[in-house]
Specification:
The complex is a heterodimer of chains A (419) and B (308). Chain A is α/β, with parallel strands linked by helices and 419 residues long. Chain A has two domains: 194 residues, Rossmann fold; 147 residues, Response regulator (Rossmann fold, 3-Layer(aba) Sandwich). Chain A contains 14 helices and 15 strands. In chain A, helix 4 runs parallel beside helix 13, helix 5 runs parallel beside helix 6 and helix 10 crosses helix 11. Chain B is an all-alpha fold and 308 residues long. Chain B has one domain. The N and C termini of chain B lie far apart (54 Å). Classes of the chains: A alpha/beta (419), B mainly alpha (308). At the A-B interface, helix 4, strand 7, helix 9, helix 10 and helix 11 of A face helix 1, helix 5, helix 9, helix 10 and helix 11 of B. Chain B: Belongs to the binding-protein-dependent transport system permease family. LivHM subfamily.
């Protein structure tokens, strides 16, 4: 640079003006550096923080059966990191991510999280998707005092000092949906259907208590099918026979596709709303595989839909499509994953430090006004205050938002009276 | 539990349950036939069977796109073409795999198990790299959607009927090939006594390759048909593999008739129990019964009596 400066001084006035600009710029950088605290100050625990970079981890399955679901989360986290870097990074440091593959295998998740925390000394990890993978890494994060930003809506019943849950816990997602069905659609009878593992079972336990105790309605049946089950004709017959007002569905993965295709083939027109189908597990991502024509008319209860009309979301969707192509769709979890890096940035800046303990202490009451879903705030219990929306699926694979809760809903991972 | 329903409702439900059972039966037969041919006739445990099915499903997906963009007028017919494409593609890959891999492992059955399992992982990752990790949606032509309403209550899904007809055709085709054609005679001769078959002038290598390719091709057709009722993703094949093995092992490895009988037993048991119990319990009970019977009859329902 000095070489060029020398040349510039010997040339035209324009060059000289440019040079002045250069000097001003350099001064600004120097000043900027002065205002940026040194690495020792913002990092007293030996994390991978240098004068101009900070390392974080991304830990999702990009191979194996969960890759279908986790791909969107990885994309969202990378987009958020890019945007933060373009804005100048966190505490003046550019974020560098180290991506590890959990390979849809829970012990691998634990091993990779240990690698990220112990060898790479990352300042935060954005990752995990299934509850099983989160449970597998939890002891590692607590032992080595790491910070995990977990994006998926999940069953609750957990509150770790080392995890920020950016998706909704069960009561936030479920109760609003059931209330809506009862109030707006006059539902009196419900049929609960799910895949057979912890999330649907806990969700339906909460749903049943709410339906029976709070809504004074009736549960006609509660059923579970093994993960990956592909034949739903029997349960469709049962639904036809019992005629519930609402079928409340938490079927996941490949089973989803089979269920809705067979429902449609069995002559049930979901747009008739007899019965009304309400799902808590089908995001826009899943509809890609199911096919919009097979799911037209069902309702979903979650906090985010790609079609949300607010400005934040418009900008988010635009940026996402610019980076990953026009055909991409964005589901609830993808948006929640996008919040992770932003929430971490806000907490680090509030704490003025990358130290895990300080970030943790700073986290409650952190708010984001720029979230695509609108406004979110971190609760004492490390979950997010968020709104719940009801969307109606259309043949183009998008949800139309038909209802939005008036207020932010308080996260309540250990709901009393629902256990 | 039936007190609340009128007799006409009950009739309708039994009719529909019966149909659900039959439709499950044809699905089981369709997915197990290919495996049964390979396992039964060659003694090779093909762990990549599910991935051959998904190859068929992806071929269907591709064919639908080709039709959509090049000849939208003929879109209704694409599904038939897709099944032929699926058969050829899966069969060709099967022949290639037999030549490159299986052929070298005929005397090491446990190694074929490992090798084909590895192959299944490789194929899954290939699908993931080529088609993306997300599931793809295969749009059905209109004539395959919806149902035939026999009465107000009884509705028969058209795609269920389609799978049944397809299964019948393929089963009949396989029967003809195996038991009526010259080639089938060669296959059976090789199964019963390989050195002797070679001695009388049968090219056993060629027979092996064709058998393996046929089995894989049928898996491809099955996968193509299953795009109507299930998901198409890199790992979707894994959803079918357990049931497939169950049917083949329960039926007796080397008997195609056994495969059909076992598919019938398991599907009827499962769909009946699913109606009275929850889905998971039905599966548990089905597996318990299968395990129980296999303890008493380790060779499966039907077995081939030959002198070794």
């Amino acid at each position: 640079m000095r070489m060029r400066d020398k040349k510039a001084t010997t040339h035209s006035p324009l060059r000289r003006r440019l040079l002045k600009g250069f000097i001003a710029l350099q001064a600004a950088v120097v000043l900027g550096n002065a205002s940026i605290a040194s690495a020792e100050e913002v990092n007293t625990t030996g994390l991978a923080v240098t004068e101009d970079t900070v390392k974080v981890g991304i830990l999702h399955s990009i191979t194996g059966t969960m890759a279908i679901s986790e791909t969107g989360s990885v994309q969202a986290e990378k987009l958020a990191i890019d945007q933060i870097n373009a804005m100048g990074g966190v505490l003046g440091r550019q974020i560098e991510y180290i991506q590890e593959d959990g390979a849809s295998d829970w012990p691998t998740f634990a091993e990779k999280s240990r690698k990220l925390l112990v060898n790479d000394k990352v300042a935060a990890v954005f990752g995990c998707w299934t509850s099983a993978s989160r449970k597998a890494v939890l002891p590692v994060f607590e032992q080595y005092n790491g910070m995990l930003y977990y994006p998926t809506f999940y069953e609750g019943l957990e509150e770790s000092p080392n995890v920020i849950y950016t998706g909704q816990e069960a009561t936030q997602q479920i109760l609003e949906g059931l209330d809506w069905a009862s109030r707006e659609k006059g539902a009196k009878t419900f049929y609960l259907l799910g895949s057979d593992y912890i999330w649907p079972r806990t969700s339906n336990k909460i749903a049943r208590k709410h339906i029976e105790n709070k809504l004074g309605a009736k549960v006609l049946g509660e059923e579970y099918y093994p993960l990956g089950h592909t034949q739903f004709n029997s349960v469709i017959n049962k639904i036809k026979l019992r005629k519930p007002d609402v079928v409340f569905i938490s079927v996941v993965g490949g089973s989803n596709v089979a269920f809705y295709k067979q429902l449609k083939a069995a002559g049930i027109d979901m747009t008739q709303e007899k019965p009304l189908f309400v799902t808590i597990s089908v995001t826009e991502d899943e509809i890609l595989g199911i096919g919009g024509e097979n799911i037209d008319g069902i309702y979903a209860s979650m906090k985010y839909f790609q079609s949300l009309p607010n400005d934040n979301n418009q900008a988010f969707v635009k940026a996402f499509k610019e980076k990953y192509g026009d055909d991409i769709v964005i589901g609830d979890v993808t948006q929640a994953a996008y919040l992770g890096p932003w929430l971490w940035k806000a907490a680090v800046e509030k704490a003025g430090s990358f130290d895990i303990d300080k970030v943790r202490a700073a986290s409650p009451e952190i708010e984001l006004t720029t979230a695509p879903e609108g406004y979110v705030r971190i609760h004492e219990n490390h979950h997010l205050w968020s709104k719940t929306r009801i969307g109606k699926a259309h043949t183009d694979g998008q949800y139309e938002v038909v209802y939005e809760s008036a207020d932010l809903i308080e996260p309540n991972p250990f709901p009393e009276g629902y256990q | 539990m039936f007190a609340d329903y009128s007799s006409s409702e009950l009739m309708a439900i039994f009719a529909m349950q019966g149909f659900a059972g039959l439709s499950l039966f044809s699905i089981f037969v369709l997915m197990a036939l290919g495996l049964a041919i390979i396992f039964g006739q060659m003694g090779v445990i093909n762990m990549a069977h599910g991935e051959f099915m998904i190859l068929g499903a992806y071929m269907t997906y591709l064919t639908s796109h080709v039709f959509e963009s090049l000849m939208p007028g003929l879109y209704g017919a694409y599904f038939i073409v897709a099944m032929v494409v699926a058969f050829v593609a899966a069969g060709a890959l099967g022949a290639l795999v037999e030549w490159a891999l299986i052929k070298r492992l005929y005397h090491r059955p446990l190694d074929t198990l490992l090798a084909t399992w590895g192959l299944s992982l490789i194929l899954q990752q290939c699908y993931r790299s080529i088609f993306g990790a997300r599931e793809v949606g295969v749009t059905l032509p209109d004539w395959l959607m919806g149902s035939v309403a026999l009465t107000d209550m009884i509705e028969i899904p058209i795609n269920g009927l389609f799978v049944m007809v397809l299964t019948l055709l393929i089963a009949a085709g396989v029967y003809y090939l195996m038991y009526r054609s010259n080639w089938g005679g060669q296959v059976r001769a090789v199964v019963q006594n390989r050195p002797m078959a070679g001695a009388v002038g049968i090219n056993t290598e060629k027979v092996d390759r064709a058998t393996f390719a046929l089995g894989c091709g049928i898996a491809g057709v099955a996968g193509s048909a299953f795009t109507m009722i299930g998901s198409t993703g890199p790992t979707s094949g894994q959803l079918y593999i357990v049931d497939t093995f169950l049917v083949v092992v329960f039926g007796g490895a080397s008997s195609l008739l056994g495969t059909i009988a076992s598919a019938f037993t398991i599907s009827q048991a499962q769909s009946t129990m699913e109606f009275f119990l929850s889905g998971s319990m039905a599966k548990v009970l089905t597996l318990l019964v299968v395990v129980g019977i296999l303890m008493l009859r380790p060779q499966g329902l039907f077995s081939l009596k030959i002198r070794r």
